[in-house]
Amino acid sequence: xxxxxxxxxxxxxxxxxxxxxxxxxxxxxxxxxxxxxxxxxxxxxxxxxxxxxxxxxxxxxxxxxxxxxxxxxxxxxxxxxxxxxxxxxxxxxxxxxxxxxxxxxxxxxxxxxxxxxxxxxxxxxxxxxxxxxxxxxxxxxxxxxxxxxxxxxxxxxxxxxxxxxxxxxxxxxxxxxxxxxxxxxxxxxxxxxxxxxxxxxxxxxxxxxxxxxxxxxxxxxxxxxxxxxxxxxxxxxxxxxxxxxxxxxxxxxxxxxxxxxxxxxxxxxxxxxxxxxxxxxxxxxxxxxxxxxxxxxxxxxxxxxxxxxxxxxxxxxxxxxxxxxxxxxxxxxxxxxxxxxxxxxxxxxxxxxxxxxxxxxxxxxxxxx
Amino acid sequence: xxxxxxxxxxxxxxxxxxxxxxxxxxxxxxxxxxxxxxxxxxxxxxxxxxxxxxxxxxxxxxxxxxxxxxxxxxxxxxxxxxxxxxxxxxxxxxxxxxxxxxxxxxxxxxxxxxxxxxxxxxxxxxxxxxxxxxxxxxxxxxxxxxxxxxxxxxxxxxxxxxxxxxxxxxxxxxxxxxxxxxxxxxxxxxxxxxxxxxxxxxxxxxxxxxxxxxxxxxxxxxxxxxxxxxxxxxxxxxxxxxxxxxxxxxxxxxxxxxxxxxxxxxxxxxxxxxxxxxxxxxxxxxxxxxxxxxxxxxxxxxxxxxxxxxxxxxxxxxxxxxxxxxxxxxxxxxxxxxxxxxxxxxxxxxxxxxxxxxxxxxxxxxxxx
Lengths: 369, 369
Hints:
Chain A contains 13 helices and 15 strands. By secondary structure, chain A is α+β, with helices and mostly antiparallel strands. Chains A, B: It is an enzyme of class 6 (ligase).
């Protein structure tokens, strides 16, 4: 999807991909196949680039520092990206900035688990500080015994744990901002995301019924994070909204994010173009939606070996649905694409949600009518 | 630009390009370098494709017939595309269908030139039946001597001529439709194009002040052409509007067309996506604009060797401008990109035109403030 934006801007995108059948490798000429855990591969790749950026957080932090030391323009830089890589560091930093977080503690031993349980009660949440994704690396523990079992398993694999209070949230929000090296920032409308089993399923734009004050607060949090952590490029701050309307930071992502895919069709400047503009230190684009409501629904792989035949039905059923498929092999639960729907003036949000949900369900083979 | 649409649809685009630095070759992996005047190159390229389509009209008609005879799905097919390749055949066909054309005659000898002058008067227009583009292959002749000189020059180069009356038009319009092999069609809003020296400079969407009746008539003409000529994919019918509101067909293009670039940002379904959907026989997408007015301005190469530095000014000046650059080397007069601007509700068309015109002029180096 970054390639679509790069083509428009006339910017040459080069990609380091792990495998020749990675989606990016299929659409970007001259993709280099290599491992982002290999410093030499990273250095050799970066040598041909004006700016190095990412579509995931998994390049080792030390390597990012080495690349920067050797003169590579890494955006976001290692000093910022580490907070998207390490949830423990992220909690320390955000709490230090006075930004609202769930109660949390770093866990080193069984006593830490018991202490945290005494403070917030059970159940609570344990998270791997690094490497979790889409619900992986997260455990809800009902009692101390369960917590100890998770810690033992984590210790065996060399995984460090963070404990967080279970937040009685009513919904999840996402506040996305872009920030450039010269310090310009732009805040997208705050959106609501529907998560099931830790995986984003749908996004509603703007977050329905969110008060102006809460929206401004969410954007303030995201802009503060971007500035104080020195983020360049797109930043997504995932937030919990609690019953009393309070906001708590859940996760950070420093790249185009699933919660911003709506902007590809629904905003004047899509998040991939904005990310490129930000990391290239070009002025940022307008973030205004082009429709009163926009809905994004993820297409998760189910058991259709091939989604293309479903296009005929989905496109005929609703010519307004924007289909984005990623060229990934279909695997159960894998995000293989998404659809965006722009709401029609005078129609309800429900109508727009129904359109997006139907298209995504049909594309994944969940329904056949 | 087709690659941007192909990525979204998850369709693998393969390109046959003349040179490794052709814009498409820069952004599409595995581009085959070859000559579209070479039947073997065409056949070998087509062997790996489900559907063969075009971004220009210059593949020899005979070769298209041979490809079809060998089982290649050529869309638009040779029987349709020939009318976009040969202006003489186009005039015969459209007049046969009763569609409004300027007065015209095929020219074989000096007597034909004199006869046509006696019928419509001087000045009139001579056109090469094949190969003209952006004002090339078009001559306005003031008298018989000038006409004879053009004919003599054309005969030397083996170029056949068509004569057309000079139309006292007040503006040029373009009616774009998409049509698929199974016969579905969709008509985009009729637009006005501003041409200078035979080159499109700006497009206004929808055509300002066009009556509902005239818009419907323009769409009817385009839909009739698409159906009766058996077009698949995008079709642009360029029209003259005369002082009394009559419409006359000027040119046909059977591909995404400059007059439709506005749709990339300004319509639910952009013309490149629509072309792919049409030639792949997928259901067509919604053609509704996403803003009350949309303006496209071409960026013509002037004397800036490198346009990228101008981005900072243009993007900072107006964050709502959508920049599309083609990765072409800058040559005077060459179309090297375009900008789209979505009009803001409550603002005038003039305001939107001014925004697009400023950005395009700055990008081409015509202004520096």
